């Protein structure tokens, strides 16, 4: 088992990091509760950025709970390659319990790993 911490080197920290993903989205994984956008980086490891608005999650407690779940599931993945990943929350997220979100996130990470640029089934397909 590897290190499952979430150091600063695993995070998108600056606005420029987020802009890099938004301006060059190469992998998109839509889901009912989340939207994942990703672009390759040259760091040799994945980095994660989170965007959850007050419009979709009214209370800070709700936003923090969902962010914690996203970070937890991200830390336990070692198959995401060298990607900068932004996770956006969608509406109706607050009403979901932790188990539902955990399953959804694991499914999303699997789809992202399959679509990632280092994977031969990933980006070179049209459509």
From TrEMBL:
Enzyme class label: hydrolase
Keywords linked to the UniProt accession: Endonuclease, Hydrolase, Nuclease, RNA-binding, tRNA processing
Gene3D superfamilies in the cross-refs: 3.30.230.10
Molecular function GO terms recorded: 3'-tRNA processing endoribonuclease activity; ribonuclease P activity; tRNA binding
GO biological process entries: tRNA 5'-leader removal
Alphabetical list of InterPro entries matching this protein: Ribosomal_Su5_D2-typ_SF (IPR020568), Ribsml_uS5_D2-typ_fold_subgr (IPR014721), RNase_P (IPR000100), RNase_P_CS (IPR020539)
Known EC number: 3.1.26.5
Reactions the enzyme catalyzes: Endonucleolytic cleavage of RNA, removing 5'-extranucleotides from tRNA precursor
Job of this protein: RNaseP catalyzes the removal of the 5'-leader sequence from pre-tRNA to produce the mature 5'-terminus. It can also cleave other RNA substrates such as 4.5S RNA. The protein component plays an auxiliary but essential role in vivo by binding to the 5'-leader sequence and broadening the substrate specificity of the ribozyme.
NCBIfam families cross-referenced by the UniProt entry: rnpA (TIGR00188)
Name the UniProt record assigns to this protein: Ribonuclease P protein component
């Amino acid at each position: 088992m590897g290190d499952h911490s979430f150091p600063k080197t695993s995070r998108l920290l600056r606005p420029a990091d987020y802009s890099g993903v938004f301006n060059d989205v190469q992998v998109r994984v839509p889901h009912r509760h989340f939207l994942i956008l990703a672009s390759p980086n040259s760091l040799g490891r994945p980095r994660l950025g989170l965007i959850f608005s007050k419009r979709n999650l009214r209370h800070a407690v709700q936003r923090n709970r969902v962010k914690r779940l996203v970070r937890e599931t991200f830390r336990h993945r070692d198959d995401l390659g060298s990607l900068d990943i932004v996770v956006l929350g969608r509406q109706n997220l607050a009403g979901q319990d932790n188990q539902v979100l955990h399953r959804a996130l694991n499914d999303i990470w699997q789809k992202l790993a399959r679509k990632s640029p280092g994977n031969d089934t990933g980006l070179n397909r049209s459509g």
